[in-house]
Amino acid sequence: MNDFHPFGWYAAKIAPHLPKKAFQPVKSRLFGGLAYVGLVITGILAVSLFHLHPVWNLLISVVLGFSFAALGFLGHEILHGTVVKTPWLRDLLGAIAFWPLCTGPKLWRKWHNASHHVHTQHEEKDPDAWPSMEKLAKSRLLSWVYRIPFPIRASFAFSSLSVMFTLHSIRMLFYFFKDFRRKNRAVVLFQFFLPWATWLGLLWLVGWEKWFFAFLLPLLVANTIVMSYISTNHRLNPLVPVNDPLANSLSVTVPKWVDILHFNFSYHTEHHLFPAMSSKYYPLVKTYIKRMWPDRYHEMPMGKALAALWKTPRVYYEQHELIEPKQGHVYGTLGNGLDPDRIVHRELETEKQPRSAKKRAKTKKAAGQGNL
Fold it and tell me: Mind listing the UniProt keywords for this protein, alphabetically (predicted)?
């Protein structure tokens, strides 16, 4: 698919069919957030104040991790301005929602709203985009990583989902820090370190064992849930010259009850078309996308999307394909030959001709020397 359109082109065609209330903040989403905050406080107090059996602590940790992730999804929605419009209240509520994930609202809006959404799947400008062969060739670290056999690397990549959101947030702090005005840098640092200070303060109060169940294990669970979504959002899609959400984004399907608990975070293509719209209305947006552009829209069950990620590499070859550099195996992307039900690769042939030419040159030179 080479005829790309910017997200505004699609939005302009769908918007007239949507009710006016779809473009208004939905404050009722805060009731869900309040419920999760209550679960988090109750769970942390239960682990911290009582000497529970490890099995009970483990179960509470899973609930806490699920709640951490859900609050992150709500924080994402809040900081897009779809819950409240008042800037200071938006940032305050967003900071509270992202507190367990230790990400500040100013950094998030710079990283996610102003960079990722504006330059989705642009190799240089999207901070979440994966590298191309050209970028790989310029990085010694990446070149070394991609010498590791693919099965080992894929296993490590999936196990790293449990820490990837946290590590990427820290990386984004360093990446964008210089872009903030000097007067805002102190605020960015304060918003970043204050959540960590509270969680480390909890460690000092309750000790390592209780802290593990009250925060560390829930954080790992939350990272895994959040990154399971984020990993499927764009990583099977091509790099694109135009920010076309139907080309560069994937919506996954999950059970309805999961969508309710996760604030419809699975509707990712819809979100990139209408980032300032509450996710409450994304099922309606999906209906019109599938009616108008059924051949362009990408969706699949989350399990299938994760399996496709497991079976494909994460380096781009000529923008619209994925390549395993060590073996030269080339895979399609969504809209460019990738069939998640039957993932196959082709061999990269481009290097064979030059090598043959070199071999013939060496043979000719050797023959010439033999005649002297």
Answer: Membrane, Oxidoreductase, Transmembrane, Transmembrane helix
